[in-house]
Amino acid sequence: MSEDLASRVRTVLDVDAEEFQRAAEADADVVKSALRDGVFDNHQSIVGLEYEFYAVDDGRWADEAGADPSYSLMRVPRRLLELIGFEKELGLHNAEMMTSPQPFNPHGLRAQENEVLARLSTALDCTAAEGMRLVSDALWTIPPAGETARGYLTDSVVDDGVAIATNMSNADRYHAMANGRGADSFTVEAPHVDLTADTVMPESLITSIQPHYQMSHAADLPDFFNYAVRLAGPLLALGANSPFFPPDIYEDGVDPEAVLADGWDENRVAVFESVLNTATDEDKVSFPRDLESVEQAVDRVVEDETFVPMPVDRSGDRFDDDFATLRMKHGTYWRWVRPVFGGASRSAANARIEFRPIPAQPTVGDSIAFQAAFAGLMKSLTRREHPVVNQSWEAARENFYGAMRNGLDGGQRWITNDGQETTDLVAVYDDILAHAADGLKSAGCSAAEA
């Protein structure tokens, strides 16, 4: 398999970067023309969710041996991943569920939760036969049984000059990242952590939930986007839950008290940024600037540094195959809030916000609550023209990284409904959650549901 994969990676590396860029620029003109024609407009708001999981030992073998369960990472057999209908992610231990888009109303939100529960229940029935369960967490710290986290995350082979990560999914793009035009090493930068690999495999340490919100009118995308940028810090602070790394990737001899004192509350952000930003001249993963127009959203994808120019098949019959190269480039346009343009057909074409700050949460209920809160906030803040949109971008950015470092103690600044800036946590979240509930109620939810 490694030989075949190496051959496919070499094919990727042979793609002409300048030709790829020219094709992306031409695709941008297609999208902008469709935007002017109203193709991406819809009559209702839509919600969706990407939900990432780890596969871990379910403890069965430990129970039979009379030992304590370890809940160590496990590799998901590819046939099992196909059987349960989940998508492969970066590491062999990862699995991703993508929900069906639903109207933003009480029935749509319940449909989102029921779909997650139904598919997860079915998946758990299947994985149980392997002594495995799928769990939701932002940064799992227990490596596969009998292995170290360092070894699991850095193990690789070189096949005919191509570096292949041993425990990475066989997606060409993932492996091409380690063999392309960027750096030849990828480093996790966090307090007292010492981990460098020759592939992007350390990024598989982390998982997230990614709510999507599709607005009715694509021209309004910048308004929704700029509000989402200001929500990134406060919502991340609420969901921060990854303060620790696997023990063996800390610096040798580090004092545990120093780890506790200096560590950050949400290391998922640090892992994603540091691993991928060490490989490029520009910061590929970053906190996004405000948008002034929907056309600017398209231009930013085009202007972003190309990490891996990929072969593009333009022979499909989907609507968004008309801008397939731009879609491909968007796959490595990593921003904590990012615009998305797509659609299988012209009638299904849509513009939406993908909200990426939230780490994977411990329960389905927690995850759906974040999805619902984000959707409610998108609806309420824009409809009521909430003054927080006037908060400086610099303050919004500091909120985000303050939440990364210190969670709810990160010093969140917010402009409340009366136009006053506050750093009082109760006032900040009273205002945010009141508007989340307001948006949910305006979408048809009862006060109790909201």
TrEMBL record:
Organism the protein comes from: Halobium palmae
What Pfam families does the annotation carry?
GCS2 (PF04107)
User: Under which name does UniProt file this protein?
Assistant: Gamma-glutamyl:cysteine ligase YbdK, ATP-grasp superfamily
Task: Give the source's domain of life in one word.
Answer: Archaea
